[in-house]
Amino acid sequence: MPADQDLVQALQQGEPEAFETLVANHGAMLYRVCARIVGRADAEEVLQESLITVFQKIQSFNGDSALTTWLYRVATNAALMKARRKSSVREQSLSLTQPEYDDKGTAQREVADWRLAPEDTLLREEARQLLLQAIEKLPENYRVVYILAEIEGLPRQEIAEMLSITTTTAKTRLHRARLALRDVLESYFSEKHARHTP
User: Fold this and answer.
1) 144-178: per-residue pLDDT in tens?
2) How many CA atoms within 13 Å lie on the side-chain side of 6?
3) For 11-67, what is each residue's pLDDT tens digit?
4) 90 three-state secondary structure
5) Domains and CATH numbers, the chain
6) 110-123 pLDDT, tens per residue?
7) CA separation (Å) from 21 to 15, 124, 152?
8) What is the pTM assigned to this prediction?
């Protein structure tokens, strides 16, 4: 993107307005990623850490990836570091059903594509809140991949590059996250159905 190329050049040259432009163009996205991973209470702190890192390391950005990909990586890494610092305080409690995989890591059964956006998938605010809580309880490596893929809409290959994992691993983690969330929602809707069935 030409605008991002100009912005990177301006940042690397230390132009005073460049950092403000970066925040204006990408700050909301970075905050959203941080909030999804560590929660709103810590998102502002992580965002500030991310912006400091960008400022300190912009000289090392060589354009091998898109600026947005690099920014996602910086924000994700900062958020993960924060989450790991807090992990000793908060245990992950959502048990995961292990799907069947072949020797190439391919899932042997399909799972529903649960997303936050479609209104027809999450019919009630109660169900939406349940899903958000379930996402927060996912093990960190599954949660991050799910957030980046399903909420941020990033391609699997880009996610793999950001997290320094293979595309197959990214797909496997996403599949397991979907499976866990599907089980939570299926239990919820089954209980709702049972209550309203004479």
Assistant:
1) 999 899 888 899 999 998 888 999 999 999 999 99
2) 6
3) 999 998 999 999 999 999 999 999 988 888 899 999 999 999 999 999 999 888 889
4) coil
5) 2-86 (1.10.1740.10), 92-198 (1.10.10.10)
6) 544 444 444 444 45
7) 10, 38, 21
8) 0.66
Residue in the structure block whose two tokens are 């905050």: 31
Gyration radius of the chain over CA positions: 19
How many whole angstroms separate alpha carbon 112 and alpha carbon 179? 8
The residues, ordered by sequence, that sit 6+ positions from 59 with a Cβ below 8 Å of its Cβ are 12
Phi, psi of 78 (to 5 degrees): -65, -40
Q: What is the dihedral of CA 66, 70, 71, 74, to 10 degrees?
A: 170
Of the candidates 24, 79, 15, 16, which has an alpha carbon nearest to the alpha carbon of residue 53? Answer: 79
CB 73 within 8 A of CB 138: no
